[in-house]
What does this fold into?
Amino acid sequence: MTQRRVAIVAGGRTPFVKSGKTFKNLSPLALAKHTVNGLMDRHQVIPDKIEAISVGVVVPEPGKPNLAREIVLETGLPASIEAQTVSSYCISGLRSITIIADAIASGRIDAGIAAGVESLSQADINYFKEPSSGLLMGEHMELTIKDWVIPRVDQDRLALNSHRNAIESRKRLAEQIFPLLGEDSDSGPRTDTSLKALTELQPAFGEAGTLTAGNSSPVSDGAAAVLLMSEERASLEQRVPLAFIRGMEYSALHPREGLFMAPALAVPRLLKHTGLKLSDIDLIEIHEAFAAVPLANARAWEQGWKEAPTGRVDWNRVNVCGSSIAIGHPWSATGGRIVTTVAYEMTRRDVKYGLVSICAAGAMAGAFLLERN
It folds into this structure.
């Protein structure tokens, strides 16, 4: 099979809304349908030109184990196309992109949609626990914070920057959003927060902890979708790609080594395989499950931990439009959101390389390298 370049043509999403609020009665199918329809309508996608869809979801909808298939049947996509659902915690969105990208790269299909959706309003406490240990995700993160000695003030500063960058980018982010139920923007970014306000919040996981509601991502509902095509199909349809997928890498380790530390493996490996240095990357998107995640993994990249050191992280290039702490984190939708945002921002800034790094429960991670001509 010959390998073809895979183009990110467009992307979009619902607003990310705090769980238990406006979207609390919307099913994953309803959220995903709205997003896929929004993507096709806004970008004038001819349904018959789509050959496959892959959808990530962690919290399943009862009676709909293959949610992707139900989306096909309720959105006007051809009934004959491939449809599969994937569940891989917070990298489910990246996994859905990989499924479509691999099919395009191999020449099996020319165009497909990769989506992710989560209604965390429907999730119980067990979804926030690591099955292998029985610990809550935040309890695992507190262990990593101790191992890597991540000060509370650094976490709060990163959280503040997430809010500031998201607010500054709100108009640009709105262009990627398909309004729903009167919501046309994310509910998370706060204009009234400050470092003082963040430092006054109480720890969420014991008095000695450093994680708070302010430096952790909020529980959210939402969906995202990405339109992928071969370079040839994009040219045939006279579409200008936002970026191409240059490389993809996945990694995993044992949760006792750090539930959210697998990016420390994925990113150095991706850079090695693509022949690039961290200093070559123009924009870096690091998922903020907790503020300590980017801080701990960046330290591991710089120092070298299980992989060779990558060099210094330029924080002026990181999460320039804000990330999960401010915007929200509907687990499976985060991959599509981040890939979409960095691809549009790469185009706006006319830069060459974008890096995506996302951690996941189960001590897994995914990393993408995006490239523009």
User: Anything to note?
Assistant: The CA atoms of residues 204 and 212 lie 5 Å apart. The first helix runs from residue 28 to 42.
